[in-house]
Specification:
The protein is mainly α. The chain has two domains: 10-104 and 153-176, no CATH class; 115-148, no CATH class. It is 40% helix and 10% strand. It has helices at residues 9-15, 17-46, 54-58, 78-84, 88-93, 158-176; strands spanning 61-64, 72-75, 116-120, 138-140, 147-148. A three-stranded antiparallel β-sheet has the order 4-3-5, with no helix packed on it. A two-stranded antiparallel sheet has the order 1-2. The model is unreliable at 1-5 (pLDDT under 50).
């Protein structure tokens, strides 16, 4: 016994997706730009201890438009991030790479944190009631009697937030072109 399909899959593809292929590619490459912008803005707006903007600038978009029948792009390159913004992992997860141990500035694995002399804003001492939530930048300064014992870096999970947003937007694009598939399936 044999089963013969009553439809031609190639014909369905030719009549639907191929008709929209250029538009689909443009939409997905536009989504790539939007996703990069979202990740950069998320990092900038969720940083707890001030930011130089270096991490956001170090995350770049890599497009490969020379693929037939495929849409290929990526955001961020691990090797490049390890060189330009080696703290990318700590900021996302709040931990050392490959470890469950919290990352505390000035602390080496297994050792106690280090007192850092300095001040907040225009010369203010640390206010323990605002730990981790204040808005003033900390300035390192030798020879001052005040300073801080840094606490653990609170993760901002920018990678996970970006993936969640990307999944929703991919699903929206798939629905736009009549697909019942979803990013997660």
């Amino acid at each position: 016994m044999s089963v013969t399909p009553k439809f031609n899959a190639q014909k369905i593809i030719d009549e639907t997706l191929k008709a929209y292929w250029e538009e689909i590619q443009l939409d997905f490459f536009e989504l790539a730009e939007q996703t990069l912008q979202y990740m950069r803005e998320y990092i900038s707006s969720n940083t707890h201890r001030g930011s130089t903007g270096n991490l956001a600038r170090s995350i770049t978009l890599y497009k490969d438009p020379n693929t037939t029948g495929q849409i290929r792009w990526a955001i961020g390159d691990i090797e490049e991030l390890q060189t330009k913004a080696p703290y990318y992992y700590v900021l996302n997860f709040g931990k050392y790479i490959g470890s469950s141990e919290e990352f505390i500035p000035g602390k080496r694995k297994g050792a106690a944190g280090t007192f850092v002399p300095g001040f907040f804003g225009e010369g203010n001492g640390a206010d323990s009631s605002q730990k981790g939530s204040g808005s003033e930048f900390f300035t390192k300064a030798k020879g001052v009697g005040m300073g801080i014992h840094p606490g653990p870096i609170r993760p901002i999970n920018y990678i996970e937030a970006t993936i969640a947003t990307l999944e929703k937007e991919v699903d929206n694009l798939l629905k736009k072109y009549g697909s019942q598939a979803s990013f997660g399936s």
